Amino acid sequence: MSTIFSKIVSGEIPAYKVAESIDYLAFLDISPLAKGHVLVIPKKETDYIFDINDDEYMGMWVFAKIVAQGVKNVFPCRKVGIAVVGLEVAHAHIHLIPLNEVDDMNFARPKLSLSNDEMTKIAEDIREAISEVTNS
Question: Per the database record, which ranges form the HIT domain (predicted)?
Answer without folding.
Answer: 4-107
